[in-house]
Amino acid sequence: MEGIKHKFKHSVSIQIRFSDIDPLNHVNNSIIAQYYDIGRVGYLQKVLGYDLEWSDVSVVIVNLNTNFFAPITIGDDIFVETKLIGFGNKSMRTFQQIIDKNSNVVKSTCETIMSGFDKTTNQSSTIPDEIKKTFLDFEK
Questions:
Q1: In terms of Cα–Cα distance, which of 73, 3, 9, 12 is closest to 37?
Q2: Does residue 4 form part of some domain?
Q3: Residue 77 maps to a domain
Q4: Are the C-beta atoms of 16 and 32 separated by less than 8 Å?
Q5: Does residue 49 belong to any structural domain of this protein?
Q6: Contact in structure between 94 and 10 (CB atoms under 8 Å)
Q7: Is 8 helix (H, G, I), strand (E, B) or coil?
Q8: What is the pLDDT of residues 48-80, one digit of tens each?
Q9: Does residue 2 form part of some domain?
Q10: Is the alpha carbon torsion for 27, 29, 31, 32 positive or negative?
């Protein structure tokens, strides 16, 4: 599959480790979710301009949809691309894809919905307009 036609401003290379490989000699699907986490964290840090302090994070993942198109193997040279694709009042949506650098084949895609979260009430909360503006300005 060719790359999805989105313009991405953030990508991160992924090092495939031997322990990522399952008995079929493919990267296990649960590990692929971790690769998307690496991309998502890198994206958030790049957009916000600082290293995240996890005790201050005010969004949580509420939905994660992953498609697997081709196996990832130990010899693949892959990277994860991440971008914001939309905001709601209390949520933000990101789209990611894992691509093989050598063939430009999309190995997997992932769409994530994150909700604003208030740790004091343990409930969803509105994402502040200044945060939305920061992300939207980055994606311009």
A1: 12
A2: no
A3: yes
A4: no
A5: yes
A6: no
A7: coil
A8: 887 656 566 688 999 999 999 999 999 999 999
A9: no
A10: positive
As a whole number of angstroms, the distance between CA 107 and CA 31 comes to 13
Average pLDDT of the segment spanning 87-112: 96
Question: How far does the chain reach from its first CA to its final CA, in angstroms?
Answer: 27
- The model's confidence at residue 1, banded by pLDDT at 50, 70 and 90, is very low
The alpha helices in the chain, defined as continuous H runs, are: 29-48, 129-139
Q: Hunting for tokens 């290379």 — which residue is that?
A: 13
- CATH number of the domain encompassing residue 95: 3.10.129.10
Domain boundaries, position 129: 10-139
| Helix-, strand-, coil-residue percentages of the chain, each rounded to 5 | 25, 35, 35
What pLDDT shows up at residue 119? Answer: 87
Number of domains present in the structure of the chain: 1
